[in-house]
Amino acid sequence: MTHKILVLPGDGIGPEIIAEAVKVIDVLKSRHGLDVELDEAAIGGAGYDAAGHPLPEETLAKARQVDAVLLGAVGGPQYDALERALRPERGLLGIRKELGLFANLRPALLYPELADASTLKREVVEGLDIMIVRELTGGIYFGEPRGICTLENGEREGFNTLVYSEHEIERIARVAYETAMKRGKRLCSVDKANVLEVSELWREVLIRVGREYPEVELDHMYVDNAAMQLVRAPKQFDVIVTTNMFGDILSDAAAMLTGSIGMLPSASLNEKGQGMYEPIHGSAPDIAGQGMANPLATILSVAMLLRHSLGNAELAERVEKAVGAVLRQGLRTADLAKPGESAVGTAAMGDAVVAALG
Ligand code: IPM
Ligand code: MG
């Protein structure tokens, strides 16, 4: 059966890194029997430019029809002045919500070759292998009411709502426990239960669902402590499960443990197993168009796509091994290079991965 993949390059460095991921897919098709059909559509600022909306109807309609979506990145300063509903980020949040992609898997894995690229000491990060399970369609990102209003005294007030219903907590908890069962069977739930009622409920549900997974050891950690522990002793973690915003923040911190935010892929899955795959980094407008962005997080997102949406663990591993091989060869994009070390560009890195695929 031919699988369908929708490619959404987006903005900034998005099109450049996606081009390298597509090179990888093309080689898997021509040399390794991968049977996929690619289509492309606009999202984010590119969606606004093409159709006046960050999530054009055509894009969403196409996304609903495919097995998986591969996304670059969205956002750019030229869109900052647009009204909020038309900004690029709304396209990304919109497609997550519309497709029901509630489970966001963000693996922070240190390639041994990059132990010295991290700003943390080698002994702190060597062997690091964490999976962050971030809730992606609820919490303060989507809670109502939200807005900016003007009070009677003329002062303006901004407000958002952090809300989680039991079923939302339950389903992300289940994904987290299932993930832990396939790994080290240790789950750390990150919350702010010393302050927030919603966290109290979060904890309660995590404990309740945990009764179905007696083999998994559950721990709770406040988010401030978790942020500290991530930079103090990150190897204590196996699987972390947390809310939308805490997960956003902690995954950026975890990314730096692996040497660069340019290394972290992600998978966002819905209840049907349909998925969207994207690097966790942004559109990096400051380096867009210069051919210097690191395409590896996007290429590793293709590996996650192969594994989670196409059920092809063999090709997923082939891609991951190819990435390891180019790092062993010493290739470094600018974000990974040490001072004085020469860096390769986006396309050269992509070509090297393609060559290493065999
Ligand atoms: C991420 C990004 C997005 C988020 C932004 C671009 C809306 O930071 O995927 O981590 O906050 O979820
Ligand atoms: Mg983020």
Description:
- The chain has 358 residues and is α/β, with parallel strands linked by helices.
- It has two domains: 1-106 and 265-358, Isopropylmalate Dehydrogenase, CATH 3.40.718.10; 129-257, Isopropylmalate Dehydrogenase.
- The chain is 40% helix and 19% strand.
- The chain has twelve helices and twelve strands.
- The chain has helices spanning 14-32, 45-51, 57-65, 88-98, 122-125, 166-181, 197-210, 223-232, 244-257, 296-308, 313-328, 346-356, and strands at 3-10, 36-40, 68-73, 103-109, 129-135, 147-150, 156-159, 186-191, 217-222, 239-242, 265-269, 275-279.
- It has a ten-stranded mixed β-sheet with strand order 2-1-3-12-11-4-5-10-8-9, with helices on both faces.
- Strand 6 (147-150) and strand 7 (156-159) form a beta hairpin.
- Helix 1 packs across helix 10 (296-308), helix 1 (14-32) runs parallel beside helix 12 (346-356) and helix 10 (296-308) runs antiparallel to helix 11.
- The mean pLDDT is 97.
